[in-house]
Design brief:
Blueprint: H1 18-30, H2 47-57, H3 70-79, H4 86-89, H5 96-106, H6 119-133, H7 143-146, H8 149-152, E1 158-161, H9 170-182, H10 199-203, E2 210-213, H11 233-245, E3 251-254, H12 261-271, E4 279-281, H13 289-301, E5 306-308, H14 316-328, E6 334-336, H15 343-354, E7 362-364, H16 372-384, E8 390-392, H17 399-409, E9 418-420, H18 429-450
Parallel strand pairs: 1-2, 2-3, 3-4, 4-5, 5-6, 6-7, 7-8, 8-9
Helix pairs in contact: 2-3, 5-6, 11-12, 12-13, 13-14, 14-15, 15-16, 16-17, 17-18
């Protein structure tokens, strides 16, 4: 026992061994620990999750996706960033959900129905298209395109490129300014404005089936120059050679590119006897009679089913060449000659060809300066031809007499399902003709209902 120094009441302090004193001190300090009430063992990440996150963070340098279990692969793909280089992802990742994220994060409108209902195909096609649209010859590195070939060649089925940029040169700009001061456009031919050569790319895409091209510049605004919209003969030559080697191509569209007769003949020469081409669209160009004559040869030498020559400069001689091909052809089903100038001389020869042709289903002769003479001949076509299902004579001058002739031809016609006579000056006859067309449509609908369903293979 010990007495207090103040001489007061005494306090009994038991004597302790050193080990007991330490234990007491530890107990004292432990009691002062403040615990977090929100803490839980569940907040601690599993080692598996930490490893997966490490794989995601280092995927560009070490893409070990194929070494993971399926459930771990799904977790990695759900969290991978969409900005990884295609050299890493294109040949490794086939998961459609990942490519869907890539598409929706990059573009506002994503309709995969135009891309075989495959997100990966859509991304690779549109990515390649964007590079081609922004490619500047002599400035952009060609490897930006060539390096993509081994990554996308198994997926690209269709390319739609509605812009090609010409090369940008300082001396070219000065030359253009000199030409503008002289007020002459003839010197434009001497300016090098050749575009990117698609040859190496097209030939290296074995599954390419559709190619839609427009040689021009979109949204140029105040920077407008005529040379921005030139499809040169060298451009055409390069393209024609590539088309000949693209054996699986089914649809080719070259629109709004100032394609004239000379370039048309060059294209046709390389498309003759093409094994797969079924649709050709050269609308909104500068094709005249010689170009149409070349296309007449193509109709007879190829498997074309659809030919669109809308808004060109084809007159009656070109129409005669096309008509001669139609009289012998057994594959073409649609011909569009809207916004040309075939006039009655061309319209009549086309009509005579349709008296013997048994495969053409659609003919568009709108805005061709046709009159009653063409209507009179097509009255015979309506009475005899059982293959045509669509005729368009809109924006012509057929007149009331022409309307009466067509009405007589429709009397026994049961095949025509579309007949456009808007702004053709045929007056009330158009209403009677339309009633007959509606009757044909209803009869066709009833026939389709009576047909037995197709057997599933």
């Amino acid at each position: 026992m010990e007495q207090s120094a103040a001489g007061g009441s005494s306090t009994v302090i038991p004597s302790l061994y050193p080990s007991q004193a330490k234990l007491a001190a530890d107990s004292y300090h432990t009691g002062r620990v403040i615990e977090d009430p929100k803490w839980s063992l569940a907040t601690v990440s599993h080692l598996t999750e930490l490893c997966l996150q490490h794989i995601i963070d280092n995927f560009e340098n070490n893409p070990i996706l194929n070494h993971l279990l399926p459930e771990h692969q799904r977790k990695v793909l759900d969290r991978l960033p969409t900005g990884l280089p295609l050299a890493v992802t294109a040949n490794l990742i086939h998961n459609e959900d990942y490519w869907k994220r890539c598409c929706t994060e990059r573009w506002q409108v994503c309709d995969i129905s135009n891309y075989g209902n495959r997100w990966k195909q859509m991304f690779l096609e549109r990515h390649l298209e964007s590079i081609l649209k922004s490619f500047i010859p002599n400035t952009t590195d060609p490897n930006q395109v060539l390096d993509l070939i081994p990554l996308c060649k198994d997926y690209v089925r269709k390319l739609e490129v509605d812009q090609f940029l010409p090369p940008v040169k300082v001396d070219q700009k000065e030359e253009m300014n000199d030409l503008s001061h002289t007020g002459s456009d003839s010197g434009l031919d001497e300016v090098s404005v050749h575009h990117y050569d698609l040859g190496a790319l097209i030939i290296a895409l074995p599954h390419l089936e559709e190619l839609h091209l427009t040689y021009g510049v979109k949204d140029c605004g105040m920077n407008f120059e005529w040379n921005l919209f030139r499809f040169t003969y060298q451009d055409c030559s390069n393209l024609a050679v590539a088309l000949k080697m693209c054996h699986n191509l089914k649809v080719f569209k070259l629109t709004r590119s100032k394609v004239d007769d000379e370039k048309t003949e060059l294209l046709v020469h390389n498309l003759l006897d093409h094994p797969c081409l079924v649709e050709l669209n050269l609308s909104h160009n500068l094709i005249r009679d010689k170009g149409a004559q070349a296309l007449g040869k193509l109709i007879n030498r190829s498997k074309l089913e659809i030919l669109d020559l809308c808004n060109n400069q084809i007159h009656h001689l070109g129409a005669q060449a096309l008509a001669q091909a139609l009289a012998k052809n057994f594959t073409l089903t649609s011909l569009n000659l809207r916004l040309n100038c075939v006039e009655d001389e061309g319209g009549e020869v086309i009509g005579r060809a349709l008296l013997t042709n048994t495969t053409l289903k659609s003919i568009h002769l709108g805005s061709n300066n046709l009159s009653g003479a063409t209507a009179m001949l097509f009255s015979k076509v309506l009475a005899q031809n059982t293959a045509l299902t669509s005729i368009n004579f809109s924006c012509n001058h057929l007149g009331p007499d022409g309307g009466k002739q067509l009405l007589e031809g429709m009397a026994d016609n049961k095949a025509l399902l579309e007949f456009d006579l808007r702004l053709a000056e045929v007056d009330q006859e158009a209403e009677y003709i339309q009633q007959m067309v509606w009757a044909n449509q209803e009869a066709a609908r009833l026939r389709s209902l009576q047909q037995p369903p197709a057997k599933l293979l």
